[in-house]
Fold this protein.
Amino acid sequence: MDGDARSFRIALAADSYVNPPPGGVDGLAVLGEAGWGIMQLPDPAYPAEMTSRILAGIAEQVQEFHRHRYDIVLVGEHDGLAAALAEVSVPVPDQVIPASAAELRRFLGARPAPQVLRPGPATGSRE
Amino acid sequence: MGVAFVAHCLLNQNSKTDGGARCPGVYSPAVEVLRAKGWRIEQMPCPELAFTGLNRFWAVREQYDTPAHRRHCQRLAAGVADAISVRAGQGEDIVLIGIEGSPSMGVCITSSDPLRGGRPEWPDGAPELTSGEGIFIEELRLELERRGIGFPRVAGMTHPLPGHDEVAETAGLRSVLDNS
């Protein structure tokens, strides 16, 4: 990964932490500063069928990060996420529902280093 | 103010092809502009991530232009179109923010090389950039057309392109956001 700046750390973040209401915790800002990537969970106001479709797509992407051992956490909560992850055999990640930016920073700061399976030079056949 | 549907990697650089992540997680220049102007952010899926995975090679449009990948994009685009439909129904202003040069998420510039294939060796600077949309953006356009929803204004982030100019990139984004 020479020249690649990724953190191997991903937060599944409830919509209210990406688009915080007035006075809410700005999870996007905290996660960005701490170098975490974000996978935004759908707005809970969306209809259930639509939400299921979006969550299924998110779960497929999470599965790919999970199998490469990226560190994945859940910031906030979302009904239906656990079921969508179960469909792709991924456990619900460690979770925080922070009441403050400081609480979120503390949670992120206590995470262990990711144990990532990193890509190496291609050695397979061309077929 | 309105809703910006942003390419997945703008919030998650971990989704990039190996060697393509410019920062650890959130590509802040785009987010800072959206936040400063009070836009709501909605992240689109990364069509390449769930199809060819994290260890995928860099690719051009033609390599993704297969029936199976188009079906995958159509399924993901339906979810985005659902969300755009809800927002449009609420009378909200909508923009789409893609990634220029991307075979999937390019909005004005994609990458093309009809002959590329086989062992992935090619010189840096190969002239694959060309005007056009990526496969996912194309499928999203078709899905919105099917639903009778106008295609939103678009802004393309240019950080993957040679000669990238961050000031020009964010100025372009501001211009699109302001042009309601």
